Amino acid sequence: MQSSMEELNSEDSGVQDVGPQIKGLVVEILEMISVLLVWMRRKAVEMVIIICVILLVFWVALFLYGSFYYSFMPTANFVAPVNFFYSRTDCPSHHPMCSFPVANVSLLKNGKHQVMTYGQPYQITLELEMPESPTNQQLGMFLVTITPYSKAGQIIGVSSRSAMLHYRSSLIQTLGTLVFSPMFLSGMSEQKQSVTVELFSEFKDDSYKPTVGAMLEIHTPNIQIYKANLYIFAHFTGIRYLLYQFPLISALMGVMTNFAFLSLIIVLSFLQFNLNGRQFRRKAHMQQEEMDEIDDLLDDQSEPHDRGIIPENVDTMDCNSADMEESIPDVTGEDSGDSRELTNDEPICEAGNEETILRCRHLSQDSFRAPQVLTETTDKNYYRVGVCSSS
């Protein structure tokens, strides 16, 4: 029975010993979990901030590249419809001196913005859609003239080029008609030719006289035309050629370059800000240390006075009771009675180690509160410190 009780007591003591350990382990686990949660929250906030900054820098880089492309790249292609008309309609039929068909074409985009950029070479081409009629086949070679002009009506240049229908023999025409007769009958195709006339191979606009329009004239009165269009193509070289021919690669390189440049600026600014902050904290820490040293020094100097011990840096001086008596100020304004009372408080010097320590007495709290008025109940002892050399 006694052994069983001892076993129960030992088990109870073991449980009591394990209980605090388990409690401490649980507390440590909870603390670790809380620290881990705080760390994960901080890292999540940092990641969100970094992702937002990266997206912002990317959009800024994309905007910069788009602005550069819009301002640097001129219009690559421009198409303007040409509507010919006769300046004279009163001439008799088949009259050789009748007016030629002419057209006035505007070279402004939406009627406001100029199409051509200064210094950029352009190719200007006229495309004529003409039927294969006997009249056009009998025309032979004809002349096309273009005259660009400025806003003030000044002529910038004149260019004339010759053109004609492509030759097709009667056998080829007959075979073509037979082969494509179903399409001709259904209206899906027509017997016509497209004649392309290159009017300018490298036309450069004048910055002092920008081109706003052009006059077109065909030097034959009997020409037959279905439709005509004026095409302006830009001849790009250098960076503009790369931007136009490889738009995706150029856009990728431009955006990445802007992104790297902006990221470098942000990183350098962040490092400079951290460096300035560290220098500021270091200066503040040094100033705090200096202030602490000064406070410690003042505390060390004030401790001897509080304990009635004379500091070591007090200069030695020769003194006697008469001199000390003369140094005591008469703050009471009373006569010889008070002065006699003060002389009774002459300093007492004791010899020791070739120096005599002057015992000092401190002013009471009442003397600090009312230094100008000293009554009979006020302590009239003064704080006198001195080191006297032994006689």
Verbal overview:
- With 391 residues, the chain is of the alpha+beta class.
- The protein has 9 helices and 14 strands.
- It is elongated.
For the biggest β-sheet, the strand order reads: 2-3-10-7-8
Largest β sheet strand count, sense and barrel closure: 5 strands, antiparallel
The number of helical runs is 9
Which range does the strand content fall in?
A: 15-25%
Computed Rg: 55 Å
Q: What would you call the quaternary organization?
A: single chain
What is the residue-mean pLDDT, rounded to a whole number?
74
Q: In angstroms, what separates the terminal alpha carbons?
A: 91 Å
Q: What series of H and E elements makes up the topology?
A: HEEEEEEHEEHHEEEHHHHEEHE
E-strand count: 14
Structural class: alpha+beta
Helix content: 40-55%
Large-scale geometry: elongated
Instruction: Pick out the low-confidence regions.
Output: 308-391
List keywords for this structure.
391 residues, single chain, elongated, 21% strand, 14 strands
